[in-house]
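Box S2. Input/output pair 1.
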Amino acid sequence: MITQNEISREEQQAFSPSSENTGETTKQYLTFFLDGEEYGVDILGVQEIRGWEKTTTLPNSPKHIKGVINLRGTIVPITDLRERFCLESNEYGPLTVVIVLNIFDSSSNKKVVGIVVDAVSDVYDISSTKIKSSPEIEQQVGGEFIEGLFNVDEKMLILLDINRLLVSEAQYSEVAQ
């Protein structure tokens, strides 16, 4: 039996504007902290969240590549985003986590990479119409990695394009199965 509340919800859905009609899409973003700023990545690219663990160092790799780990048979390069973004380094603590991400290289091969962040924050549903473009700042390093900016409450989230950001790190990863 349908209650009055259920009828109201069904009627609201039938008569409310659909995102298909407006061209609006909503994506979920996993957010995390780096040096007090909050960043977000598309949650569909997130494979898992792990605590920090020691890595196997690769000789002659860039400073921001902390090394690799063996994740259930897949070699995963680990990038410290603080160092990648030229932020002051920080000692890893109990809140330090590795976000394991699935990305696609230039040949559309799926790769698995990990990013070290200070702490995981939240998951937000964000409408594409609410994402603002990043201002073009002359000589801005890393601006090509920013998908956009989003205001939530009194803070601004920096949304990252993980495929653009981590394409160079993908060379240290195996093709994921």
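Box S3. Input/output pair 2.
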Amino acid sequence: MRPITRAPAFMRTATTSALISHFRRLVYIALTALCTIGAAGAADLSTAAGWWQPIDGKSGKPLGLINIYQDHGLFFGRIEPSSPSDDGSRKCTRCPDERRNQPIIGLVLIRNMRQQGDEYVGGDIVDPDSGWIYGCKFRLIDDGKKLVMRGYFGISLFGRSQIWKRVEPNR
């Protein structure tokens, strides 16, 4: 049987140093990848695009889930399912335009909004319960964590505002 020999001390140090250096490099790469993935999945609070939960002004309860998205430079908002108990068969029977008889879940209720400074203007919003179409504008507050939505007839003076809270979708 051959005796077990150990490498000289200077070689063990070099090997250990190389392993530690290699390990540090791997950890750095892994952390960089995780940070990049995390940043890509985080909501961009500088834009209205994202998931929003309207809050009832009287009761303070959430009213559903709206996905605001950008398409060809304009912003649109679609009603999304907010819980498994949402009625997917309910339709917008009172809507006066191409949205008539469309399912409420998936309905584009905000259309053609454009960003103008710190406000989003120029589009409209439909109330699926009444079918009324209102002019609307909105702006971000609380560093992009909330949105003030204002629906109005003709001019903004004749309308009402509602606070929407930014949320992460449960997907």
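Caption for Box S3: Helices lie at 9-41. DSSP finds one helix and eight strands in the chain.
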